[in-house]
Every structure is written in structure tokens, then in C-alpha cells.
Amino acid sequence: MAVLTAESDLAQLVVIGDRGLGGVTGLLLGSVAAGLGAHAKAPLIVVRGDDADPDPAAPVVVGVDGSPLSEAALAFAYEAAAVRGVPLVAVHTWRELVGDLDVAPLLDWEAIEAEEREVLAERLAGWGEKYPDVPVQRILAKDRPAHALVEQSRRAQLVVVGSRGRGGFTGLLLGSVSHAVLHRSHCAVAVVRSATDDGA
Q: Is residue 199 part of a domain?
């Protein structure tokens, strides 16, 4: 892994299988793939062993968390969809995070959903002009981000995630969503590190 990590400093892209020769039966992701997910400087694509020959018409899926860090993932995903000539599915999730259950019924959930829809629209703004030939399907889901992306991966050829999301801690090299998607995706996964990522 050390050699691949060092080479990733100069590479445009690193591609690796999900499990290597030393893989333990039952593990969802090999140690090298997991380690590179956390440390590779270049975008990393992990090709799942059960989906080495994806449907060429299947879409590219990207997780949009509303943070500036997701811009690098969006750029990679739009380019990947454009090169493949397939649609892009942009997934943004939100959850009911209310500590006081007595307050929950008083909240305007339609307004909250409208705000989240606006977050997604703002993050996608401008990309359609740069990639006019890439059709985009927007999915707004009241769900856990990793679960929504893994479900979308069943119908995709590639899922693109940032290395850390808006809930990430400074210095954490791989966010919980990226980690979960790497382990559970049904198709290839691209982990894209932002230039401003502290782990880069």
C-alpha cells in the first residue's frame, strides 16, 4: 500500500480491486483498498469483484452533502458521466435530527425539505452549463447518506463520494459515509479528495 500511496501523489487516478491475494473470505473490502481510500492523494476507484463488467448504460451516482468539499466529487462525477455518455444521479439526503420528541410535531417538515432541495440546487448550479449533454436526475431522500447511496449503487456503474463530508472531523482521512459506501456498494466506487481536504 505504501508504494501505491506514494505513486498517488503524482497520479491522475488510482484504480484498484476491492480484495487482493491476501484477502480473507467474508471481508467486504481488502485492507489495501480500505487504506488507499483513506490515504490516496489522487482520486481512487475501487472496482468491486462482483461487478467487473457493469452495464455501460447505467448512470453515475454522486453524493451531494451540501458542503464545499463535495465540489471535487461533483466535478469528477460530471466528467465521468460525460465521458461515458450516461446520466448523472445526484443524491442529497436529510434526516430528522430532533433531540426533543415533543418538538418534532411542531416543526415544518415541508419547509425543511424545501431548504434541503435548495441546498441540492445550489450545489448543482453552474454544472449544467459546463456539461449540457449530461442529463441529471436529482434525488432528495430523508435517509442516511450511506444507505441512500448504496441503494442507488444497485442500478449504477459508478458511485462518486468525497473523502470527507460536512460531518467530518478535522484530520479524519476518510469520512463515515465514504467508508460505508466503499464497503457496501454494489458497483465501483470513486473516492475524491478535495484540494482543501486536511487529509490530502
A: no
- pLDDT for 163: 81
In a domain, 27, yes or no: yes
**Percentage of the chain lying above the pLDDT 70 cut:** 66
Number of domains in the chain: 1
- In this prediction, the residues of the chain whose per-residue pLDDT falls under 70 are 1-10, 18-41, 49-52, 96-107, 164-174, 195-200
Contact 53, 187 (CB under 8 A): no
What integer pLDDT is reported at residue 198 of this predicted model? 45
Which cell goes with 77? 462525477
CA 151, CA 186: separation in Å to the nearest integer? 8
**What pTM did the predictor assign?**
0.80
Q: What is the domain-level CATH number for residue 53? A: 3.40.50.12370
Q: State the chain's mean pLDDT as an integer.
A: 78
With cell 442529497, the residue in question is 92
Q: Tell me which residue has cell 480500505.
A: 34
Whether 93 maps to a domain, the answer reads yes
Per-position b or e across 9-32, b if 16+ CB within 10 A of its CB:
eeeeebebbbbeeebeeeeebbeb
